[in-house]
Amino acid sequence: MAVAADKRTLLLIVDMLSDYSFPDAEQLLETAERPARHIRQARDAADMAGVLVVYANDIHGLWSCSREQVCERALDGRRPDLVTPLLPRPGDAFMHKGQHSAFYGTPLAHLLHQEQIEEVVLAGQVTEQCILYTALDAHVRHYAITVLRDAVIALDRELGEAALTMMSRNMSARLLTTRQWHNEIT
Which residues are paired to 33 by β-bridges? Predict the structure, then answer.
């Protein structure tokens, strides 16, 4: 039986619509291709299982930008090949975020409540920053957390692994591969 039938699950894709023009982007891009493919696989699995997909994306101080402008800026950036497969579809929820956590200053908490979500599944970048802080905010709100360990991108491999360990130990987050999650929900 699919997890989606057992509990309300949401796939949250964090900060993948990027022009990669920020400091340390080159370091992040060194390992981004494989996780980006896994994020697309997770989104496809979510679609097959009826799992809600939500994007939360940093707007880099462009407070008046639209969802379309965020996507255009990312497509005009250094790695449109990473962005194109992950563009949100018309039915996907999209949150503009100005800080590390996808909860801070966004309607994400309200959406989770309205949709009666019980589990937040995290994918995206950066593991030791935005993924970690979003997981912490989900934890203090009493949501179950799953991190797709092959669908998150770290700036620093050691810090990324430490963040995964913290999420697992301190927040009871499940660390799954995309394939494991796909098998679980379909």
Answer: none
Give the whole-number percent of the chain exceeding pLDDT 90: 89
The token duo for 135 is: 């997981």
> In the chain, what are the domain boundaries?
3-185
Question: Residue 95: which of 32, 128, 127, 137 has the closest Cα?
Answer: 137
Q: How many residues can be counted in the chain?
A: 186
Confidence of residue 62 (pLDDT cuts 50, 70, 90): confident
Phi, psi of 63 (to 5 degrees): -65, -25
**Between residues 149 and 5, which one has the greater pLDDT?**
149
How far is the C-alpha of 106 from the C-alpha of 44, rounded, in Å? 25
Topology of domain 3-185, CATH: Rossmann fold (3.40.50)
> How far apart, in whole angstroms, are the C-alpha atoms of residue 26 and residue 72?
20
d(CA 83, CA 25): 14
- 156 contacts 182 by C-beta, under 8 angstroms: no
SS3 category, 105:
coil
Evaluate if residue 5 carries a pLDDT over 70.
no
